[in-house]
């Protein structure tokens, strides 16, 4: 899912090679007004992860350590959401 700026043929072909179904509105239409309903979930989650300094600025050189901090960040976010719901 992307905006009209990504509706180039090479982008559609590259996604098709990888087996990804693209949801790209055609240029000159007003179809992109519905894209925000789905994209805000991802943007919100990334914003939540950026509240942790080690994830906002990557200090680790090793991928496994960065992934561990990413997992810890996700666990803390889920814990906060669950704690607020009880």
If you had to describe this structure to a student in words, what would you say it looks like?
With 86 residues, this protein is mostly helical. It has two domains: 1-32, no CATH class; 35-86. It is 58% helix and 0% strand. It has four helices and no strands.
Q: Brief overview, please?
A:
With 86 residues, the chain is mostly helical. It has helices at residues 9-17, 36-49, 53-56, 63-85.
How would you sum up the major sheet?
none
Total domains, how many? 2
β-strand amount: under 5%
| Principal-axis shape | extended
Identify the notable features of this structure and list them briefly.
single chain; 86 residues; mainly alpha; 2 domains; 4 helices; 58% helix; extended
Q: In terms of topology, how is this protein built?
A:
Blueprint: H1 9-17, H2 36-49, H3 53-56, H4 63-85
